[in-house]
Amino acid sequence: GIVLVAINPYEQLPIYEQDVIYAYSGQNMGDMDPHIFAVAEEAYKQMARDEKNQSIIVSGESGAGKTVSAKYAMRFFATVGGSASETNIEAKVLASSPIMEAIGNAKTTRNDNSSRFGKYIQIGFDKRYHIIGANMRTYLLEKSRVVSQVR
């Protein structure tokens, strides 16, 4: 499959704004620079064309920007699917398990608030390819590193 290597710039950059989403929408993979929006567009196009589920795997070390990349992909789907103005889907999905995250987050040498959870986010689309809902499942990783409560 397609592999995109990205880094977490630790600050907002203009390469993730609305006009960039529209620039990547409808483009073929490889026509533009590598970007999370290019990966999202390819998955979106294949879902619509083949009418089959698609997956985007976001992987990396602690602090690499996995959650941020997932947010950008969801923002892309919400925008191109006509859902961005109706609802802030990425905020709703990612805010759905704050208690679980609070239990599983821990300080590491690379990140002050590193999650011990893997996340599986399933986004539902209707026949017109608009987002109609989402479901997030969390899986506890590295439970041996969650050893005590901070006082």
UniProtKB/TrEMBL annotation:
Q: Which InterPro entries match?
A: Kinesin_motor_dom_sf, Myosin_head_motor_dom-like, P-loop_NTPase
Q: Name one GO cellular component term.
A: cytoplasm
Q: Does the keyword Nucleotide-binding apply?
A: yes
Q: Which residues form the Myosin motor domain?
A: 1-151
Q: Which GO terms describe its biological process?
A: actin filament organization
Annotated ATP binding sites:
G60, E61, S62, G63, A64, G65, K66, T67
User: One matching Pfam family, short form?
Assistant: Myosin_head
Keywords, in A-Z order: Actin-binding, ATP-binding, Motor protein, Myosin, Nucleotide-binding
Q: Name one GO molecular function term.
A: microfilament motor activity
Indicate yes or no for the key word ATP-binding.
Answer: yes
- UniProt family annotation: Belongs to the TRAFAC class myosin-kinesin ATPase superfamily. Myosin family.
State the protein's name. Unconventional myosin-Vb
